[in-house]
Structures are given as structure tokens and as C-alpha cells.
Amino acid sequence: MPIRLRFAHAGASVSLRRGGGSLIKKNEENPGSELPKVNAAPAVDLAAWLEELPPTMAQAQLLALALPRRTETFSYLQPNMQLALARRLDRRDLVEIVTQMSADDRADLFNHLTPEEQQRLLRGLAREEREDIRRLSAYAEGTAGAIMTSDYATLAADMTAHEAIELLRRKAPEKETIYRSYILDCERRLIGSIRLHELILAAADTRIEEIMDHAPVSVALDSDQEKVAQLIARYDLLALPVVDKGGRLVGIVTHDDAADAMQAETTEDFQKIATVRPFSQSVREASMGVLYRKRIFWLVLLVFGNLFSGAGIAFFEETILAYVSLVFFLPLLIDSSGNAGSQSATLMVRALATGDVALKDWRNLILRELLIALALGATMALVVFPVGLLRGGSEIALVVGLTMLLVVIIGSLAGMSLPFLLSRLRLDPATASAPLVTTISDAVGVLVYFWIATAMLSL
Amino acid sequence: MPIRLRFAHAGASVSLRRGGGSLIKKNEENPGSELPKVNAAPAVDLAAWLEELPPTMAQAQLLALALPRRTETFSYLQPNMQLALARRLDRRDLVEIVTQMSADDRADLFNHLTPEEQQRLLRGLAREEREDIRRLSAYAEGTAGAIMTSDYATLAADMTAHEAIELLRRKAPEKETIYRSYILDCERRLIGSIRLHELILAAADTRIEEIMDHAPVSVALDSDQEKVAQLIARYDLLALPVVDKGGRLVGIVTHDDAADAMQAETTEDFQKIATVRPFSQSVREASMGVLYRKRIFWLVLLVFGNLFSGAGIAFFEETILAYVSLVFFLPLLIDSSGNAGSQSATLMVRALATGDVALKDWRNLILRELLIALALGATMALVVFPVGLLRGGSEIALVVGLTMLLVVIIGSLAGMSLPFLLSRLRLDPATASAPLVTTISDAVGVLVYFWIATAMLSL
């Protein structure tokens, strides 16, 4: 069972308060009060309740739980709370919990400890868990290796269905999922997989190799977690096996861990689209300092971008003094360009993230985007033309209409191309945030506007 | 098995081309060519391959598949392709496929047909399937009812584990998932659930009621699909039971269908954030007409919003003529306000969507937002102050610095509050798009800027 991401956590808690589960109804009216049915409540709800308590009480309540339940509840706590408790607990209590945690959760907790705490914990663990932690905590964040678990069930190809079921019965309680078992050859290479219900449906003496799937989908250790989630979604898998370079099975990523990873990536995309530097905490719980630091970087950077627009304006100061009504249309024109650009950029960022669109599609899409932008720009030119007539006469109207057409096209093409460009440079396309596209479109828009004005109004 | 959403579809296909599965390696170099191993390839890959073919060939290839596989492949086709084939196939062939489809896929296909086609299809089906379609196709889009399936396994509380396993063995092949079975009383009320591996682990004569979970999490028929997905994620469920007002089990939502629904909602949020009206097609495959229509609405609407900024400028024309260097700072100031606002709005839209933040959190968050905005605004005022000094002297620098502080605060507060306001009005918070927030901030920014300028420069 995974450590729930913070936002997923808080999210579901809200849903429950809207009436999702009758279990914590009582809690709803008086959050932080005693949980009504400690024994019946799902562990995730217990964890949410513990997080509302002061650490001393949370520790006492956690230790009051029976052991398998204590571990499960601990696994659902947010990383910060786990850390706080891990530091308060006796080493014996901590080791007891950590030994029972699933391999991926254990590695996550381990990664959050200081080197001294890691050593202290490792000394308390049995050799098997120790090696498991060392292995799982070594993979780069965002890869299949980092979100996989080593709790999977394996079978041999020459077992019978009956033998396999008996083996699973004996081993099942330890494993994160037994709904699919993996078949390995003598060198631990993945040669097949089989679902529990196929085993149950098969005649008792059927050999596994006759009924197993001989070509299970798998990923490499360093595969991007986004790709892992996409494969799990495409093939409706409960878990995806992870293999090393030699094709040996090293772990599985379960569907829920992949979904959590995907949710975190999506939230990161939202943050980037809004020029907020990624942070993985809950917005509700993030400190003011964190939010300030995550937001100020791009805000200041974009100020310098906007100075280009200012410089453009300064260059055309005479035009402005001669036709001050041009300024009236300035926000309108540069915003429209930015809006069209944000539309294209955001659509592409999402399409690249879900895999709807690939790098190679750029050529096909750019022509279509040009035609759409032409239609959008023409429509908007028609809309602003009468406003131009009213405010400044026919010459101004022409300048404004023509500018609108051009800046919408420029904005759209820039907005569409930037995510591809970033992706090609192996940067995250989501960095092509709406404000960045807007700033670029603004600077270009100012130049185009006053250049057209200067030319057409023959200044 | 669900109909894969288009973007999920295309997405995974991309991943595969990057080297995910060796199965379709050959296909990679020559897309649209014959699939190398029709018998070994997963149905979802077969479906992706069929979609590349002209309809006549796709039909022939589909009918060449053996029956259970034909249905599975058909279920994975995109809705448009399903429709095209459904219209080409003989009624007998169509009925054969439709009868075997999972209940939710069948209802989805049905909903896409014209009323005449629906009648034609219904006449060919057995009474059970007919009633199932009528029932499932009646629920409002976006609710649990619309994405649930009626293919679930049920058990009685007084069965033994052995009897239950035998029952599942007989019924399993028809059911979408048997990893969790539901226990109903004599009036079909949901009284418990049990996992397959608990049945397998239990002694053969254990009665279900002794080992079942007596308080399974469930949702109402009209629950929002977002809430369904949140509950499934929170409790790491494979499926969530859906009950009617009397607590009777009417269906289950499987984790993969919930994930697809969630992915669609997230994409919609991205579209809304970028002022693109929601469309559920793939960006790659959407026609130019669709993209034009989905984009033009807000672009034109925002033009009228921007006219307020223009009107503000017109009102202060004299100030501008007296201090034309003020225009230099105009894009900078209004963009900064818009950027800060987009940051807040997008963070809140996402936090409300994942449930990280609830309506009632507004009070707590608004004060924090004010303090953060104060810090952001002060930093940015310090950044632009020297630029003001350089371009226009100390008075202009003061005006620009003070304006920056105020507009960043106003933009942030507006950006944060708008999603809450929309949510309270029962509108989608994602409508508080970055461009809308920018437009509002712009208009306010222009007024604040020139008002401060007029006052401080004593015009």
C-alpha cells in the first residue's frame, strides 16, 4: 500500500465529508475528535485522523493499534508525519513497523531520513530488508525504479495450477498484490505472467506455461513514471513489471502507485503552466515561505521579459504622442495575442503529457494551427474593426484590425511551437507556461502594432 | 474493459513506439502495415492498428478475429470508429459483438447511436441485455451511474468460502472483475464485500459473513465521477460499488474506468484554464472546425473585457500625454498583475479539483494569500523601482513601484477568490482561467496605475 500523496489524501477527506462514507460521519461535525470506530475504519481514515492530533497523542494512538493495522496506518501517514513519528518512536517500535511496511513505502521513508537516522534504522533491520531498502532507495526520482515495489509473487513455468495456488496461499499475506503472478526462468528473467483468476479457472493439473501470457508488457528500470502510468492505463493493468537490462524482474509498479505518480505529475504541469515552480506539498498546507519562493522566481523573470515590450513602446513614443488613441487598443491587442498563444500552448502541453501528441507530429500540426489562427485572427479583427472606427476613425480601425490578425497568428504559432521546442531540448514542455507565452507575444505584439501604425499612418 | 479515451489511447501508442513493448516493434517502423502477431498482440494494440486502416479493411480484419477477441478489440476502438463499424456490420455480426461487450461499453456505444439505430440494435438483443442497456444509458454524464458497469460478482453471506470460489469459477468469465465480490441481502442491499484472495486464504468451510468487510465504501448513483475517482484513489480500490437510494447495489465503477474519467476531467480543466471550451476529442485528431469553435468563444469574449482596460486608458489620456513614459511600464504592470493572478487561480483550480482544498478553506487561505501577495508585490516593486528611476525619474519610480505592489496584491486576491466564487455558485472553478483573471487584473491595473499617477504627479 502506498504512502498517499498529500493532495490525494486531503482530497478524499473532503469527499468523505461531503458524505462519501458513513464511517466517519461523526468525525465530520467535529474534526479532530475521537474517531468513532477505530476498529472498523479504513486505515487511510485512521491516518487522516492521527494527522489532526498533536504528535504525542498521535504516537500513543498509533501504538495502541494492533500490529498489522499499526503498520498499515503508518504507511498512509503523510511523509512529514511519518518522519515526526519515526523520530519519536523507540527504535524497537520503529523497526517493528518498518519491517512490516511494503518495500516501496519503506524505501520512501528511508529516503526522507538523515544519514545518521538511516544508519540507526538499518542496524535494527534484518539483512533482507536492509538490502531491499538500499536497492529501492537508489533509483532516480520519477523513474519506474523509484516507484516500484519488490513485493510481488513469482511462480515457475513447470508448476501446476494447483501447486501455484497452494504456493500463493502460503505466500500471499506478504505480497502487495497476488492478482497477477510473474513467471521467471532460472536466471530470474521474466518469461510470463498469469492472473489469479486464470489459475482458479484452470484444471488443477494444468501447467502454468500452457496458460500463462508469454509476452507480458514490462518497462525498464529507468523508464519515466509518466510512461509507466500510460502503459498501465493503456493495458488496464493492476501492476506493471519492471526489468533490468538483462530482462530480469526487479520489481512491479502497482496501478495505485502509478496513479499517484501521475496525479503528482499532472499537478506539477498545472503549477508550471501557471509559472509556479513545482512543489509536491498540499497547497493548503504549504508554508507561506514555500509559496513565496515557488512563485517569485518566474514573476521577476517575466518582469525582465516585459521590459522588452516597454522598450518597444519607448521606441515608438512619437507615434504614441501623435495618435494617443493607439494606447487605447494596446491591452486589447497584446492580451488577445497572449490569450490565443496560451490556448495553443496549454493544449499542446497537455497533449504531450498524455501522449496524445508526439514530437514528430509537429509538422502536421503547425499547418493546421496556422489555418486555425488565421480564422481566429480574422474573426477577432472583424470584432475590433468597428471599435477602431468608433474610437479613431478608419485608419486606426485598419491598423488595429490588421494588427489583431497578425498578433493572433504569431501568438498561436509561438504558443504551439514552444512546448515542442522545449520537449526537443529535453526540457519539460509545461515550462511553456501561459504567462511566458503571453510575455513573448506581448513584446512581439507591441512591435507589430506600432510598426504597422507608423507605416500606415505615414508618420 | 472500457473504451479507452482517445488521448489515453494515442498516448500509450507513443510510449510503445519509444520501446515499451517488443510486440509491435515491427509496426513502429512502418505504421499502418500489417500487425506482426495478430494472435499475440494485446487487443488494445490490435484496435490501434485497425484504426489506421480504411473502414472496409478494418471491418474485414475485425471479422477475421475469433469471437471473444473480436469483441475485446472492438471495445477498445475509439467511439467514432466503433460507430463507423457498427453502421457497416450486418445486424447479426453487430448483435454478436454487442451481446458480449461489457455492460458499460455497450451502453456507451448505444448512447452514440441515432434513435433509429438504437431501436434496430435493441430488437436484436436478448431481453437481459436490452434492459441493461436501457438502464445504464439513462444516467447523466459525469455521474457514477454513467461510468458504472453491471458486470460484478455477488455472493450470499451464508455461503462457505469453498462454495463461493466454486460459484466464481462458474461465473467468472462473464464478469468484469472478480477480485472483489459483493455480498447482498435478500433485497439486494449491499451488506459486505470480500476479496478473492481472502476467499482463497480462508479455510474451505469458513462462512463469508465471518470474513467479509461489513462496511464497504460505496457511492450514490448521482455522485460526481470526480468523487468516485477520489474515493478509489484514497482507498486503493479496484472497484467501487454504486448503490441506489435504498442501499441496493446497482453497479460498480472499476479503477480503470474511474482513471479514464479522471483523465478526461483533468484534460477539461487544462482546456478551461486556457479558455478553450471543453472538447473530449484528441487534439491531434480534432478537426479545424472543432478547434476554431472551441477557441473563438472566449477569445472574443475577452476582447470585450479588454475594452474596459482601453476605456480606462482613454479616461486618463491627458495623463498619458503629459507623461508618455508611463506607457513604457504599462505592459509590465498589467502583465505582472495578471501573472500573479494566474498563479493563484491555477493553484486553486487544481487544489479544488484534487480535493486538496475545500470551499470552507477560503477564509483561512485568503489571509495567507494576502501576506504572500504583499511579499511578492514588495519584491517586484523593488525590482521595477530602479527601472523607473532610469526611465522617468524618482516620481515615476515611486508611481510604478507603488502600482506594482497594489496590482500584484489585487491580482493575487482576485485569482485566488474567483475559483472559490465559481465553485460556490456551483460552476466549474476551472472557468477561472488564467486569461480571464488576466483580463480582470488588467482593467483594475490600468485604473490603479493611472489613478496613482494622476494623484502623485499632481496632474
Summarize the entry for a quick read.
The structure is a homodimer of 459-residue chains. The first copy, chain A, is mainly α and 459 residues long.
Characterise the protein shown here.
Two copies of one chain form a homodimer. Chain A has a three-stranded mixed beta sheet with strand order 1-2-3. In chain A, helix 15 (225-234) links the parallel strand 4 and strand 5. Mean pLDDT of chain A is 83; it is low at 1-36. The first copy, chain A, is built from 22 helices and six strands. Chain A has 459 residues and is mainly alpha-helical. Chain A is elongated. The first copy, chain A, folds into three domains: 6-138, MgtE N-terminal fold; 152-261, CBS-domain (Roll); 288-456, Orthogonal Bundle (Tetracycline Repressor, domain 2). Helix content of chain A is 65%, strand content 7%. At the A-B interface, helix 1, helix 12, helix 13, helix 15 and helix 16 of A face helix 1, helix 12, helix 13, helix 15 and helix 16 of B. Chains A, B: Homodimer. Chains A, B: The chain crosses the membrane at residues 296-314, 320-340, 370-390, 396-422, 434-452. Chains A, B: Belongs to the SLC41A transporter family.
